[in-house]
Amino acid sequence: MDPEPERLLHRRQALARGYTPGELERARQSGVLQLVRRGVYARTALVDAMDVESQHRLLIEATVATSDAQAVVSHASAAVLHGIAVWNLPLHRVHLTLDASSGGRIVRRRHVHTAPLAADDVVRTTDGIAVTSVARTIIDIARTAPFETAVVTADSALQRELVTNDELCVAIVLGAARRGIPRARRVVAFADGRSESVGESRSRVLMHTHGLPKPDLQRVIRAHTGRRLGRVDFYVEQHHTVGEFDGMGKYTRYLRPGETSADAVRREKLREDALRATGAAVARWTWPELDHPSVVVQRLRSAFTLGSR
Length: 309
Description:
Distance between the termini: 72 Å
Number of domains: 3
Largest sheet: 4 strands, mixed
Radius of gyration: 24 Å
Helix content: 40-55%
Strand content: 15-25%
Structural class: alpha+beta
Shape: globular
Number of helices: 12
């Protein structure tokens, strides 16, 4: 079968074009098509080429087309549409909110919430999909998701300048009657748009939950001569300690013209040597180590001892 090149192929559209139910089923069984949700197909090659967020966008499109016209995309699904980081948020269901007092339900591919929706709570994407505003989206996630996950999302929205802290505070006030608002208030108080990645946001939460001193973010460090040595992820003033999260792509994202990854690693090593020459201690950790907080905490505490001498 050679389906039309749209992102989605609805069963009723395919049948209207002359395809038979048997042809659709054979295309699915052969792997040419796959079900996105009941009655909606996509080309397998298209889906396989997508990342998880893009696949969720496809599921959103399929779900909105077959849902209540008054439903608004919300929670994690809204974050995906807004381009906000969604670390550790399940994306196997599309979240929708209805402005109603009852009627919420959870099925295999869809979670329908019911809650008041003010006019300012709803915006539309360039494709015309109704979605909760960024501020409402962040607050809904902060009310319902674990603290670390919600901080990642809030930091991302602030860092990308999709929302301001003032707008988040207003959204909290407007949603004061909803369950989980005290949790959301803690997330907003902790959120910081200077965090530039999921790993940096998770690192901040790790330091906070383990009682480590609050770091300054994106601090510019200078040599004794005043020469700028670079901007660091974290700086703990009282212990003269630099903290650096080495995420995936750390040495490839900012490659200079003609520079290889090995060149970038050497450049970073020279930068670290220059930082240490100021008397600062330097602690580094990687993505896998964030899942073992004691490793990061011990590394930082060891650095604090060195930097305080």
